[in-house]
Structure formats: C-alpha cells, structure tokens
Write a structure and sequence with these properties.
With about 350 residues, the chain is mostly helical. It is about 55% helix and about 5% strand. It has a two-stranded antiparallel ribbon with strand order 1-2. Strands 3-4 form a two-stranded antiparallel ribbon. The two termini are about 40 Å apart.
C-alpha cells in the first residue's frame, strides 16, 4: 500500500539518543545524516503494521514528550515494549540502507570515501564492512519479525492493527512467520529468507494444496488462521498440511535463494575468499542444489500423500473436503507407482 507524504517525517525513531539504545554510535553522529534512511526504514514498518496503527503509535510517542505545563505521561506497557522492538529494527535497517552513503562525502571533486588524514581512525577492511552491513540487514529484519510476533501474541492490545488490511496480509498464508517455517524446515529463523520464499509458498498453496483439499475447505482453513480460532480437527490436519507447504515451498522456490533477477538478468551471489577471511562462503554446487531440491520435493509429496490419507481416514470430520470435487475414495492423487514412499501421519 502507498505511504502517505505525512509519513515521510520520522516519528518512531526521533533522535540519536534513541538510536544509541541499539547501536553504539558516538556523539559525533548527526541525526539529519541518517534521517533519510530512517524514513525509508519506517516505510517498511508502516506497510506491516498499517498507517492507522502507525499514527496511533506516533500519537502515543507525542504524549510522552515533555508537556507545557508539565504533566506526568501515562504509559502503556504493551506499546512501550513494542516500541523497543520496532526502534531496534528501524535503527539496524536504517544503517543498512545508509551504509554506503554514510561512508561517502560528495564535493565539487566528486564522491570520496571518508577517512581521517591524521590516521587516528582507519576504515574497516572490506570483509568487516560486508559483515557489518549484512548484520544490520539480517538483525534488523529479524527484530521486525519479533515485533510482529509480540503483536500477534498480544493482539487484544493492538486492536487497530488487527482491524487493518496489513494484519490480513500478514496472516494470509498457511505459514506466516520465519519461526513457524523453521520449526519444519530450518531457515535459521531468518525473516529475509522467509520473505524470499513467500512467492514459492503461494505456488505451493495454489498448485499443491488447493487441488488436494478443495477450494471450500482451503478457504475455510485460511479464514480460521486469520481469525485465530481453529477447530480441534482442523488444527490436527494443519500440523501435517504445514509440513507439506514448507517442503513444497523449498522445492518450488529453492533456486530463488541463490539467484536474483535484476535489470541485467539473473545473477548468483557468493563470497570470495582472501587472506583476511575467517570463514569462507560459497554457493552450493548445481549438483548439490539439485539434490537438496529433489529431496525437498520428495518429502513434500510424502506429506501431501499423508494429508490425503489423513482426510480420507477421518472423512466424517471434514465435510467440506468430503463434499468437494477433490475427494475421491476410489483414487489417490499421490498413489504414484515406481517411487519411494515415506509414510507420515
């Protein structure tokens, strides 16, 4: 959703004092140099928590500012805890966005790298810069996921967010967080990896799950996930279904994790070794990637077979499936001959 112009002004992370709570910056940092990147980071926050709830938080932060005449502010413990998580995320993502520009000065002679001529300070080694920039990015997005989890666990305290379109979007999948995904397939609880797999999860849901269980039951499960009220029978089935979704998502989207499409085409990114490396990173070989994705596909299909088997064995508990065109008690979509079967119920 588009971000309104009024939100181009930084409202949650307002000064260097707030930044110092999360990043050990020194007194020489000027907030106005970082401010444009804080604005960019806060746009990401707005998209996830909604403009309406963002405005509500902004008004709350205003209420904590010194008043004239002086008055004791009224604190909301839930908002205070959330602001800590959001400000942590904004701080890190801001430094990630501004990392290159903050290390650069532009004059009549062009762009220059900032270094002290007297030698009192030295620039980081390239590897240190790369690691620090990546830390800001990874930790910033992971802190954002913690904020979303906190809001979900206490959603009765965040009614404006729950009533927003932003909330509906965050709950639109069968698996809606990196932690939930990692419980099934290890992605190291990475928000960034989870975001990269979202399109693959859409493919898995559209082409693997929807034809298997039927559109009516599919829509019913999605509605229950959004409401947070799931029947006991459906909760049991979702345990198996989410495993199928995770592995099918990896099988369908694994290659998106190693190659990105930009204006020049598909590019693969990897770290090159040099004498300063303590850890050498390189992309997995094409053969290894193929094996990993083939194994994920095999496990995914096994879970899909288990989903079908579970529903048929308990057909009276699942009337939407029983009355759908997806149900056929004489035929199994996943009864494939000549393949290794892994029975999982």
């Amino acid at each position: 959703m588009p971000v309104q112009l009024k939100h181009l002004v930084n409202m949650l992370l307002r000064d260097v004092t707030m930044i110092k709570e999360f990043v050990p910056v020194n007194a020489s940092l000027e907030y106005q140099k970082l401010s444009p990147f804080v604005s960019d980071a806060e746009k990401i926050i707005i998209e996830l928590i909604s403009e309406e709830f963002y405005d509500e938080l902004d008004a709350y932060v205003d209420s904590l500012e010194p008043q004239d005449p002086p008055a004791e502010p009224t604190h909301n413990a839930y908002y205070d805890a959330l602001l800590i998580l959001l400000r942590h995320s904004i701080s890190f993502i801001s430094f990630h966005f501004g990392f290159d520009m903050l290390n650069t000065v532009f004059s009549n002679q062009g762009f220059h790298r900032i270094e002290n001529a007297d030698g009192s300070k030295k620039a980081l080694f390239q590897r240190q810069e790369e690691n620090l920039k990546r830390t800001f990015k990874v930790q910033g997005y992971n802190k954002l996921e913690l904020a979303l989890a906190y809001m979900e666990n206490n959603k009765e305290e965040f009614a404006t967010w729950v009533a927003s379109d932003a909330y509906t979007i965050t709950k639109s999948y069968f698996i809606n967080s990196s932690n939930e995904f990692s419980d099934i397939y290890n992605i190291s609880n990475s928000r960034l990896v989870f975001l990269k797999l979202k399109n693959a999860q859409v493919l898995a849901e559209d082409f693997d799950i929807k034809p298997l269980i039927g559109i009516d039951y599919y829509d019913s499960l999605k509605a229950q996930i959004l409401s947070g009220t799931i029947s006991d029978e459906d909760a049991m089935f979702l345990i198996i279904l989410k495993k199928a979704v995770a592995y099918c998502s990896i099988a369908r989207g694994g290659y998106s994790l190693i190659a990105e499409l930009n204006e020049f085409g598909f590019y693969q990114f990897m770290s090159e070794s040099n004498e300063l490396n303590f850890r050498i990173e390189s992309a997995a070989s094409e053969k290894m990637i193929g094996s990993i994705l083939a194994y994920a596909e095999k496990i995914g299909k096994s879970y899909l077979r288990s989903c079908e088997s579970f529903l048929k064995k308990n057909i009276t508990d699942y009337p939407l499936y029983a009355n759908s065109t997806a149900y056929d008690d004489t035929y199994s979509v996943y009864d494939l001959k000549g393949t290794d079967k892994i029975g999982i119920i």
